[in-house]
Amino acid sequence: MILSQYSWREFGREAEFVVANYLRLKGWRILFSPCSRGAADLIASKGSINWCIQVKASTRAARITSQELNNLKELSSRLNASPVLASLQPYHVNDSNNTLDPADRRIVRDSSGEMLGVSLGQYMLFLYSVDTWKPIEP
Asked: What is the model's pTM?
């Protein structure tokens, strides 16, 4: 029996589950878009905060088209949510200027204390507000 190669599409769908599971651990309620279709892959809510999340998985910086951004912003506006880009990338925290947050050892901060992302073993999760393009904390 020949095993098929692991596809980027499969990796992308699994990345959605990784992001969803991490956010669930942080107390968020998650809804998935059926079959990864639609402007947002995930809808997340925690208290009065709502996020429409587009998840990208890549070995490089996340790539999102202007049409995807417009669709995400439009959906977010309709749902009274903030548009969020989640990027899951292979990453190793080995920069001596970066530190792990003592309150949550998965959050990586730079030397000024700004959040860079979330360390998930061999991967790093980056969450960005599409409105400001600044990292956001879950």
From this structure: 0.84
Amino acid identity for residue 32 in this structure: F
Strand partners, 31: 43
pLDDT per residue over 55-76, tens digit each? 998 877 778 999 999 999 999 9
Burial of 47 (0-12, 13-18, 19+ CB in 10 A): exposed
pLDDT band at 30 (very low <50, low <70, confident <90, very high): very high
d(CA 74, CA 81): 10
Q: CA-to-CA distance for 93 and 82, rounded, in angstroms?
A: 28
* Rounded Cα gap, residues 50 and 83, in angstroms: 9
Give residue 109's identity as a one-letter amino acid code.
R
Domains within the chain, CATH numbers bracketed: 8-129 (3.40.1350.10)
